[in-house]
Amino acid sequence: MSNAPRRALIVIDVQNEYVTGDLPIEYPPVETSLANIGRAMDAANAAGVPIVMVQQMGAATDPIFAQGSHGGELHPVVAGRAYDHLVKKDLPSAFTGTDLKQWLADHDIDTLTIVGYMTHNCDASTIYEAAHAGLHVEFLVDATGSPSYENDAGYASAEDIHRVFSVVFHSRFAAVVGTDKWIDAVKAGTPVPRGSIYASNQAARARARAAAAA
């Protein structure tokens, strides 16, 4: 198909720290997202979609992702599968201080599919930067995830964080889709459509009107 997306699967920070370490992913359950990340990688490799592995690296004294630590290592689900390029970073976006932008240009990529962790941090930073660069972005909602947070601003559950960021992504920045539907789109060579700010707001307002009238 002449209009088929030229995809790359971006596997962000699937490291032991999020699974058996001190920053566990809570929602969706990490076992679910890990299985879907593996399925997405298998589908990409079968379809000839290049895979970029992204790895967060901290200082040796950092409490998480420390250089040389078990927590900082790639999880076996991704380390044991083939990928085409490795990006190591020390900031949230996979673009900042790395060769990712040039690698994508060299490989004529126009669509990024994001899996991995965390939805609201490294995934979000990468999605925003990619969207601003004119790339189409896909976010696999069941192959990503968040932990819960509490700080001076308040408390947010992992489910709330993941859900709200996913809704915002789909309104403008990324097409949010499940792994099954994404695999179907890869096999068909078709894009995954995203929503819009206006349509998202109109749907929410219609819901509110319906609730008020009930």
Automatic annotation (TrEMBL):
One of its GO terms (molecular function) is hydrolase activity. It comes from the Bacteria. Residues 8-151 form the Isochorismatase-like domain. Keywords: Hydrolase. It holds the Pfam family Isochorismatase. This is Cysteine hydrolase. It comes from Trinickia fusca.
